[in-house]
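Final paragraph of the annual report: two paired records, presented back to back.
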Amino acid sequence: MRLDLHVDAAELTAAVVDIESVSGAERALADAVEAALRPLPHLTVERDGDTVVARTGLGRAERVVIAGHLDTVPLNGNLPSRVEGDRLYGCGTTDMKSGLAVALRLAATVPEPSRDVTYVFYECEEVEAERNGLRRLASVRPELLEGDFAVLMEPTAGQIEGGCQGTVRVDVTATGARAHSARAWMGSNAIHSAGTILDVLRAYEPARPVVDGLEYHEGLNAVFIRGGVAGNVIPDECVVTVNYRFAPDKSLDNAVAYLRDLFAGFDVAVTDGAPAARPGLTHPAAAAFVAATGAPVRAKLGWTDVAQFAELGVPAVNYGPGEPTLAHTKDEYVEIPLIRECERRMRTWLTS
């Protein structure tokens, strides 16, 4: 379980991938990260739960945060890692252990960066928001996340992705009245009534707002449906769980209000939500990152923890070697040359 931070970034990625770290079971990887970073004399290392924070203290005029989550989605027969040509396969290769490897390499091999750096390796990003290690730090140790700019090493295929979409899940409930199925006319079938909810979803046309010059693509989908009492009973309730991915031109409250209006006549209960984040690329520190890396820029079509930094007043972008369309898939992989290119670009930025 030891990590050698001086090996090639692709080799380090494989080592990180092979330490299983499904959400809630990150301790072994957090232990390995802490053990690898603590001996480095240029870093001050702190641990909070299974979140590890390492900071330089050089008195630079600017401090930046480089962050990444340690956890992965559940395994799907995709460990240990394997190499095929220029591709490294395995759970978390793209989301986001290749990004973690780049950050770890930088932490170990750039002892005197041009900006002070805070490296954050945190747990439980892939599950409900209240378990998120970055969120906990923002609540109990916000000083550890202070900075002028942040880079979240989420998979972006080597492109800079500005901001992020917000996400909210709601339970939309259709009600009816129970009756014996032999005398259905004496009741009201809630599952049939839920067809109106599905009609709204089928008719939805995704909005594509442009925010700070970047085009986002919203989404509204049913992700669960439940109802039914027994095989001979007309159901009196049917619940459709809806997930809305909204652009950063809306607040979380705006998004909830939109859903309540869209499903007027039904009970709408919020079960989970996280705000969007604007791109923030006009901030000087963000502009310097774009210029130093030379990477192309696009909108982030999904929610990431850049929203947490936005709430702290820290402009942030997503940038990592993983391919986002492969995240959470059985055959997830990362292009090895892109890992090295990502490290090269980040090193240029930290040393320029």
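The closing record of the year follows.
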Amino acid sequence: MKIKITGIGSYIPEKKISNTDFSEHVFLNEDGSPFAYPNEVVINKFKGITGIEKRRYAEDSYTASDLAFFASQKAIENAGIDPETLDYIIFAHNFGDVKFGTTQSDIIPSLATRVKHQLQIKNPKCVAYDILFGCPGWIEGVLQANAFIKSGMAKKCLVIGGETLSRVVDAHDRDSMIYSDGAGASVIEASDDETGMLSYESATYAAEEANFLYFGKSYNPDLDPDTKYIKMYGRKIYEFALSQVPAAMKSCLDQSGLEIDDVKKILIHQANEKMDEAIIQRFYKLYGQTPPKDVMPMSIHELGNSSVATVPTLFDLLIQGKIENQEIKKGDVLLFASVGAGMNINAFVYRY
């Protein structure tokens, strides 16, 4: 028995923020000093490295659990199931519900419970809980659903990744341009045919790597130092990802018994275009090959980095044929992979 994604849905906020919207921002160095060059240079360098031209921010009246509810409705409808038959709702996020204009996280009740409430599920045996696993959270939720179903503890699970990162960024940190908002959801069920998950890999590196992503004060020394924002050591994350993610992807693929030539698409966390391209190059190099054209669909150019939402949203867009020059067919082998705060890495091989 394998597990299969029988329904997929995403919610992409309407509010579009382009790179030019950051032209008047006051970007500062970590020590609070101003940059020695204008914002136009900052933005052009940013685009050249990350590939991001636009990103989406949630509507002011919505929180992460609202975005997740919208995505979940679509996934449930896509799967054609009665939501009362769900055994688990697993919600991966990082900062809970953060209302517009605030930075305080709200996670009581859990966001999964809030989605269950909004879906009007009455069944008390539908267990709802959150997981904090950084950007790889949705993939980890799928792996947990796999364990529940294979153990007999569940038949149907709803796995969600949702976040509003735009509300926890330091406006004076140029890294704030990376982040965006969104949600993706998936219904997971058992599969008795050839489709579904074939293998998986998951790991946490917490020796030197634990604090590569962290909560820290604003770069603006005039702001309250007790108010914290998402921060990262970008160079360290880049080096870590390039040294560890390709090997994890190879281990996962090798466990599946398939060959590198069998892989049709790689759906990797949309964090940084240059980093993702380098990961794919190194992954194929482990097999003595170069990546085939269009093996890595990308959504980051228009949607930015919505953390846990990037991979399920990418999958949804790919299935709908909404990514230019990209398509998948029944029987295609996909490799899902992610890296993020923890530092966590995970992956799974999937036959569509």
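The mean pLDDT is 96. This concludes the annual technical report; the extension proposal builds directly on these records.
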